[in-house]
């Protein structure tokens, strides 16, 4: 990490949870308090553990890394201290649980399996979750406070134009290569026998739970969903946040009754109601997904191959074929054009594409139609096959207002928000009790008023 203070605030929030939780597996370090911000403390072990983590990841600094780490912690604790006094900021158990589940899934995706995660942290997943809870709560509080500080900051088109004109040539950002494409996706058919097998297994689990077995324990052992490690619990959600069929069954449950087998776009479930708060409910579930046979995959791939040839011959337009045959509801009524959920535009950077999609598009010409290849369906999270048509490709280039206005607007808005946040930090330093150990007295902090 270069000593770029403009990026530290963003990078620290993005990686602080990873750094702190990965330190669970480090040797215990003798603690003493090195700083106090309001009612929040920073321990020497916090600094040392993050320093070890950054070294392990090859992160370097032009300055004193431990001083930079301490200032990141100071800023974070300052935000938390303010959030704790703000009655409008409220972190719920559901938010914490959802954040933890998401983080654990990132770990599992990175390491390859739950067992690999447990091996790395040298702890079972329930213990990892327990130790993550306070870290996640603080992260959410800090994030909410940060958002509140900058929520009313906006930027006008005139400001964007003026900011761009004032940029020195060497500071004009580069736009990475991006693609626009359309797709036709087909999911392999699952046999009736396979669906019946899954439903029978879930009915047997329901019977065992009703006879006294723990639903949560059964979820840990048998559920194929991301919430399995937390006993199938998914936290408080409203109807609009759930699959339609799942919500219909879950909201009709009374007491601790177990639902019948429910089919959703993700597979089959049995559901248990945990609690109800207004128009939101907390449920746990066991998810099982029917498996696709090799024969079904081969059949689907051949069907798409035939369809691609028909489109190439001009017998049917790609857009019409997408509307008639694609199983992807998000693109089939849009001529097959895929929309980036991060930006709500049709532009995708290489990093935003599934690996095999990126690899295929990079070798294609404009308006070319690919051969069929396998992907993970974004809706069902199951195997599917797709053909893609490359609509547009823009190579890496220097940004310009005509083609890259939104990209530039986002950059300048971030800078404006960063300035507001820095002013807030400087102001709050003078209003908050802050004490820093003398061993850090010589740190070259960006904000000079930490040491008073």
Distance between the termini: 28 Å
CATH topology value of the largest domain? Triger factor/SurA peptide-binding fold
Number of strands: 13
Query: Biggest sheet, in brief?
Result: 4 strands, antiparallel
- The helix count comes to 14
Low-confidence stretches: 1-30
Tally of distinct domains: 3
Secondary-structure-based class equals: alpha+beta
- At the first level of CATH, the class of the largest domain is Mainly Alpha
CATH superfamily of the largest domain: Porin chaperone SurA, peptide-binding domain
**Overall shape:** globular
Mean pLDDT, rounded to whole units? 85
Helix content: 40-55%
**Overall radius of gyration:** 26 Å
Structure characterization notes:
The protein has a 4-stranded antiparallel sheet. It is globular and about 70 Å long. It folds into 3 domains: 5-154 and 411-450, Orthogonal Bundle (Triger factor/SurA peptide-binding fold), CATH 1.10.4030; 178-189 and 293-397, Chitinase A, domain 3, CATH 3.10.50.40; 192-288, Chitinase A, domain 3 (Roll). By secondary structure, it is an alpha+beta fold. α7 (157-165) crosses α14 (401-429). The model is unreliable at 1-30 (pLDDT under 50). It is built from 14 helices and 13 strands.
């Amino acid at each position: 990490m270069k000593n770029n203070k403009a990026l530290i605030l963003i990078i620290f929030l993005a990686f602080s949870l990873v750094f702190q939780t990965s330190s669970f597996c480090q040797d215990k370090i003798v603690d003493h308090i090195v700083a106090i911000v309001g009612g929040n403390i920073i321990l020497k072990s916090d600094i040392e553990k993050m320093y070890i983590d950054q070294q392990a990841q090859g992160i370097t600094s032009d300055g004193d890394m431990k001083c930079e780490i301490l200032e990141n912690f100071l800023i974070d604790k300052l935000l938390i201290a303010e959030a704790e006094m703000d009655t409008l900021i409220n972190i719920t158990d559901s938010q914490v649980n959802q954040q933890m589940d998401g983080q654990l899934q990132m770990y599992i995706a990175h390491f390859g399996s739950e067992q690999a995660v447990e091996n790395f942290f040298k702890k079972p997943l329930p213990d990892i979750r327990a130790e993550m809870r306070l870290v996640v709560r603080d992260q959410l509080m800090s994030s909410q406070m940060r958002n509140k500080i900058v929520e009313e900051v906006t930027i006008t088109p005139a400001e964007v134009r003026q900011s761009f004109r004032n940029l020195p040539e060497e500071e004009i950002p580069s736009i990475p290569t991006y693609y626009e494409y359309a797709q036709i996706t087909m999911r392999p058919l699952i046999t009736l026998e396979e669906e019946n097998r899954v439903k029978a297994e879930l009915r047997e689990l329901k019977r065992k739970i009703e006879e006294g077995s723990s639903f949560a324990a059964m979820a840990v052992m048998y559920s194929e969903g991301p919430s399995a490690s937390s006993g199938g619990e998914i936290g408080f959600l409203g109807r609009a946040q759930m699959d339609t069929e799942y919500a219909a069954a879950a909201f009709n449950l009374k007491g601790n009754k177990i639902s019948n087998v429910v089919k959703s776009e993700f597979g089959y479930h049995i559901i248990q109601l945990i609690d109800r708060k207004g128009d939101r409910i907390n449920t746990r579930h066991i998810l099982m997904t029917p498996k696709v046979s090799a024969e079904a995959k081969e059949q689907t791939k051949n069907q798409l191959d035939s369809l691609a040839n028909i489109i190439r011959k001009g017998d049917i337009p790609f857009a019409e074929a997408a509307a008639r045959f694609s199983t992807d509801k998000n693109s089939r009524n849009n001529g097959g054009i895929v929309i980036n959920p991060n930006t709500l535009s049709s532009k995708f950077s290489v990093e935003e594409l599934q690996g095999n999609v990126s690899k295929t598009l990079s070798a294609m010409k404009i308006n070319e139609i690919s051969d069929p290849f396998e992907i993970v369906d974004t809706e069902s999270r199951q195997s599917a096959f797709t053909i893609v048509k490359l609509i547009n490709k823009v190579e890496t280039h220097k940004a310009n207002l005509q083609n890259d206005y939104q990209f530039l607007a986002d950059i300048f808005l971030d800078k404006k928000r960063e300035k507001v946040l820095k002013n807030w930090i400087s102001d709050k330093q003078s209003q908050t009790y802050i004490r820093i150990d003398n061993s850090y007295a010589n740190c070259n902090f960006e904000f000079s008023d930490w040491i008073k």
